[in-house]
Amino acid sequence: MRGMHVTVRDLDAQEVESLLAKHHVGSMAIAFHDRVTIELVSYVYADHWIYARIEDGPDLTMLQHHHWVAFQVSEIDGIYDWRTVTAHGSVQLLFDEPTPREAEEYRNALELVRSAVPDVFTPRDPMPQRVQMFRLYTDEVRGREAQSTNSPTLDLPSA
């Protein structure tokens, strides 16, 4: 009988950065009081920041009251073959006003998001309901990987 062996390891900083930069869809957990939601988010990663948009509604209201979130990106090749990065941090809502610095941060975020989806905030925006731009600084990040391999034949006692 052949068995399976699974090895789990932490990803190094470069692997974490690579996984975050490679993808554009992740899951964000938002919590407030006794309610936790998970929102699928289209994003762009640059310089330790995740840039994205969210719809006006309950999740945005929760973020306005409690800005701490968890964000996760995963690659899954099989039940025991995967890579994932989880980031915890504080969401900053971005606005094209009122100070020059805030406007500059907003324009930078818009440029980054448009590098993945050029029609964001134009008449051809594929998701115009996502009206609020935000960014998340990845101040606490952990990457993990699991890999499975076949083990050598096991000698089992006969029945």
Mind explaining what this structure looks like?
With 159 residues, the chain is α+β, with helices and mostly antiparallel strands. The protein is built from three helices and eight strands. The model has no long low-confidence stretch (mean pLDDT 91). A hairpin with a 2-residue loop joins strand 2 and strand 3. The protein has a six-stranded antiparallel beta barrel with strand order 2-3-4-7-6-5.
- Please list the strands of the largest sheet in the order they lie side by side: 2-3-4-7-6-5
The biggest sheet amounts to: 6 strands, antiparallel, barrel
Task: Give the number of helices.
Answer: 3
Characterize the overall form: elongated
Q: Proportion of β residues?
A: over 45%
Structural class by SSE content: alpha+beta
Give me the count of strands. 8
For the termini, the CA-CA separation is 14 Å
* SSE sequence, one letter per element: EHEEEHEEHEE
Helix content: 10-25%
Low-confidence stretches: none
Radius of gyration: 20 Å
Summarize model confidence as the mean pLDDT.
Answer: 91
